[in-house]
Each structure stands twice: as structure tokens, then as C-alpha cells.
Design goal:
Length: 505
């Protein structure tokens, strides 16, 4: 497949313009659906991080912050809405670029671009609303004092994002950080950076003040690590693996720097015996095979009531066989490639080990026979799983579903919570009281009832346990980038009177 004209050779986006990396190195961009090289991206180093952070620091404090950090929220909202408008205008090109870079079906990339634009628009509204929330009074029991709260931008934000939703995951951080008045350095994954670099081009088009957003690309140890440990970065927000999240926490702790982490998951989906089978099956496959299972919140552990297990599995396999696996640019594709050869091999090892440990590969588990190139894996359904198996305990991040049966509600909850992770969880049942009980019992940050994976920009997103902490999206996403300042004023004309005054001569 030839590279379309939308793939342009970009540099690092620093101080409102393009800059070649300090060492002149670049990394190849591989289309995971064809294994063809379709371009390259800059490989930033610590020196480039230094320049980008300096640009963000200067933009934050320039002219006392009048042009950005201390400007009215309406000023920042104007730029966020302009970015959203450009995203909509270039939606088709951006979606194509996302698919070529990540291997996801074009329909999914198209929907992602809608979500990107909606996210910028949502935080534009919150930026405007922020002005009206300033100086919120605090009720005090003392008449001599008046107190209020200011919400101020935290400073320079280091944003490190994942490859599974390249531009959307970046937007979840860029939009609220800019809405709050922060300036930022974005470091997307080296496996999928093209649309994030195009965001830099859009920032130029809309006239975003130089240095407000800077975008560096490159490897984690060479660019991400120096960004997370930089003394002039005031806050780090990260989406990615739990192991990398631990390293970022360690680096930030040296300077007592706030972090928010959205990490891995091994989310459960509990299905009871009172459901419409096909309706529940579709949610089950949507919850794991969307984006080829490369979703941190994927409901990759399916818990089935024993009364319906056989019937459910029969229908599950029938639905899985009906999923169109193809070049992600083909109309109707519902399962594209995984992101890279490394991820492809990792997923195959998970499946192989599950088989060796005694699990049954009920369906899938191999390359689709009609696709000779690209990093494609069939939707995979694994049964006869024990709770000690790797496939039950570790995040696969691929189109792999493992299944256990349960008899009682309490057993289902125990199995659901049997994980180090705590991002999402779901329950499907027509008994709403039961759904409410399970909602309270699940140890996770997101619960879905009679569905799996809906993601709404207005609602908080984040997890517990080893899935991280902090919440993105909604008003909580904005709060990530704000610091609260208490202001208290003494209002009396009288002397305070705590100390005895000296004698007057």
C-alpha cells in the first residue's frame, strides 16, 4: 500500500514550529496491517526534552501569564474550539492516518476522531465555566474573616500517552490541561505518533501561542523518562503499562511531583442466567474484540452463570466466527491488526502458555488463514481456565477472552475481584437490584451495567489498585491540572488582640 499524501515528514513540534531532533535520528513508521514502512518520526533525546520544557515554561509565565495561564478561560476556550473545528474538517485524513499507523479498522478511527473533537469542545466549555467558579466563598464560623478559593493551573504538564488510541488518548490529557491554563509537553508512543504530530500542524493553523503545546516523539527511555523526571515539569499524566507507571511514580517522587496514572486492567464481565443471550454475547465480544482487544479496560475475563454457559459459548463462537477480519481499510472490517510485531508475538505466547497450562482454545488463537502479512490474530476464546493461570492473572492486551463459570452471586463477585487490577467491571442481568449490589461490590473505578466499554467524555475515567489513580474526563479531568489556593482576609477594624500591646510613651 503506497503512503498517501497525508503522511508528511514532521519534526518535533516545539515553540509553535517544527524542529529536527538534536541528534538527527528518526524512527521508522510501520503499517502493522501490511508490515510496510510508510514514513518516519523524530527520535527525541533528553536535550530535546530540555528545549521543549523550556518552551512550555516560558509560555506559562510569559508576560505574567496574561496570554495563557492567567488569561480568562474564554480565551483558552476559543483555541480549543478552533482545534475541534479543524479536527472535524480533517476528520477523514486523520482517521486514515490513524488506521495506517495503528492497524485499527477505519470505522473505529473515524469514531475516534469524532470523540477527539467532542473532547476539545467539552473542555472549551469547562474552561469558560472556570471563570465563574473562581473566588467561591467558604462558609466560616468567624465574622472577622472572609475566605474564598482560587483554582489555578498547576504549571507545565508532562503528558505521556499510549498507542492504542493515539490521538484520542493524547486529547484526554491535552484538552483539559490547556483548558486549565497549563502549558504542556506531549510525548506519544513511538509506535503510533503520526496523528499527534498532525495535532501540532493544527495548532499552527489555529494560531495557538508558541510553546503552549509542544510535541516530542521518540523512545520511552530517551524521551519519556527525561520528561517525567524533569525538575521544571510540575505534573506528569501517564497512560500505559503498570510497570512503566511504577517507574514514572518513582521519578516523580524525587521531587514530590503530582502524577495521575491510567494503567493496565484485567476487567471482569459477569453474565447471569436471566439475560437475552444474543444481546449479552454482543456486549461480551464488543468488550474484548474492539480495537483488537488493545483496550486497558477490556472485559477480558468473562464470568458465566453455569446454567447458561454451554448455550452462551455456542453463540459466542458463532458471533466470533462472523467478525470480519481484514485489511482495516476494507469496508465493514471489525478486527484489524495489533500494533506491532512485538505485541503480536507477546499475544501468541500468552495463548501458547494457556494451552500448555491446560486451558482449552475454544476458538481462534492463530493467524487468520486469508491474511498472509500483517500482525493479525483471530478473536480467541479460552475456556477451562483456572485462577492460577497466567491468562487469568495478566493483561494480554489483545483479542483474547478467558472464561470461567460460577454458581452463586457471591462466587461471581469473588472471581471478579480476584485481580491486582481495578479499572473496569461489568454485570449483565435483568435483576436491577442484583446489578446494584454487584456495582457496590466490584473493586474498580468504572462499572458498566448491561453493557461494556461505553466511554463518555462527561463521566470520570480511572481505576484502583494497580490500574492507577486519578481520574480523567469530566470535571475530574480538569481538576487534574488545577491547584487550589485558599485566600483568607481579615475584615475587622479592630486590633487582633492576641498579644499585649507595648505601653505607649
Amino acid at each position: 500500500m503506497a503512503a498517501p499524501p497525508t503522511i508528511q515528514r514532521r519534526g518535533l513540534f516545539i515553540r509553535g514550529g517544527w524542529r529536527e531532533p538534536s541528534l538527527g535520528r528518526r524512527l521508522p513508521v510501520i503499517n502493522p496491517a501490511t508490515e510496510a514502512t510508510i514514513g518516519d518520526i523524530p527520535a527525541a533525546t533528553a536535550e530535546d526534552v530540555e528545549i521543549a520544557v523550556a518552551a512550555a515554561r516560558d509560555a506559562f509565565s510569559r508576560d505574567g501569564g496574561r496570554h495563557w495561564s492567567r488569561a480568562p478561560g474564554a480565551v483558552r476556550a476559543k483555541f480549543l474550539r478552533a482545534i475541534a473545528a479543524k479536527i472535524k474538517e480533517r476528520k477523514s485524513d486523520l482517521a486514515l492516518l490513524e488506521t495506517l499507523d495503528s492497524g485499527k479498522p477505519l470505522d473505529e478511527s473515524d469514531a475516534d476522531m469524532d470523540d477527539v473533537a467532542a473532547c476539545f469542545e467539552y473542555y472549551a466549555d469547562l474552561a469558560e465555566a472556570l471563570d465563574g467558579k473562581q473566588r467561591s466563598p467558604i462558609s466560616l464560623p468567624m465574622e472577622n474573616f472572609k475566605s474564598y478559593v482560587l483554582k489555578e493551573p498547576i504549571g507545565v504538564a508532562g503528558l505521556i500517552t499510549a498507542w492504542n488510541y493515539p490521538l484520542l488518548m493524547a486529547t484526554w490529557k491535552v484538552a483539559p490541561s490547556l483548558a486549565a491554563g497549563c502549558t504542556a509537553v506531549l510525548k506519544p508512543s513511538e509506535l503510533a505518533s503520526l496523528t499527534c504530530l498532525e495535532l501540532g500542524a493544527i495548532c499552527i493553523e489555529v494560531g495557538l501561542p508558541p510553546g503552549v503545546l509542544n510535541i516530542i516523539t521518540g523512545l520511552g527511555p530517551e524521551a519519556g523518562a527525561p520528561l517525567s523526571s524533569h525538575p521544571h515539569v510540575d505534573k506528569v499524566a501517564f497512560t500505559g503499562s503498570t510497570e512503566t507507571g511504577k517507574r514514572i511514580m518513582t521519578a516523580a517522587a524525587q521531587m514530590v511531583k503530582p502524577v495521575s496514572l491510567e494503567l493496565g486492567g484485567k476487567s471482569p464481565l459477569i453474565v447471569f442466567d436471566d439475560v437475552d443471550i444474543d444481546k449479552a454475547v454482543e456486549w461480551a465480544i464488543f468488550g474484548i474484540f474492539l480495537n483488537a482487544g488493545q483496550v486497558c479496560s477490556a472485559t477480558s475475563r468473562l464470568l458465566l452463570h453455569e446454567k447458561i454457559a454451554k448455550q452462551f459459548l455456542d453463540r459466542l463462537v458463532a458471533w466470533a466466527k462472523n467478525i470480519k477480519i481484514s485489511d482495516p481499510l476494507e469496508k465493514g472490517c471489525r478486527l484489524g491488526s495489533v500494533i506491532s510485531e512485538g505485541q503480536y508475538e507477546k499475544i501468541k505466547k500468552f495463548i501458547s502458555r494457556a494451552r500448555s497450562e491446560g486451558a482449552t482454545i475454544l476458538y481462534g488463537g492463530a493467524r487468520p488463514q486469508h491474511l498472509r502479512r500483517g500482525f493479525f490474530i483471530e478473536p480467541t476464546i479460552i475456556t477451562d481456565v483456572s485462577t492460577s493461570m497466567q491468562i487469568w492473572r495478566e493483561e494480554v492486551f489483545g483479542p483474547v477472552l478467558c472464561i470461567k463459570e460460577f454458581r452463586t452471586e457471591s462466587e461471581a463477585v469473588e472471581l471478579a475481584n480476584d485481580t491486582h487490577y481495578g479499572l473496569g467491571g461489568a454485570v449483565i442481568s435483568n435483576d436491577q437490584e442484583r446489578c446494584e449490589r454487584i456495582t457496590k461490590a466490584l473493586q474498580c473505578g468504572i462499572v458498566w451495567i448491561n453493557c461494556s466499554q461505553p466511554t463518555l467524555v462527561q463521566a470520570p475515567w480511572g481505576g484502583n489498585k494497580r490500574s492507577g489513580f486519578g481520574r480523567e474526563l469530566g470535571e475530574w479531568g480538569l481538576d487534574n491540572y488545577l491547584t487550589v489556593k485558599q485566600v483568607t482576609k481579615y475584615c475587622s477594624d479592630e486590633q487582633w488582640g492576641w498579644y499585649q500591646p507595648p505601653s505607649k510613651l
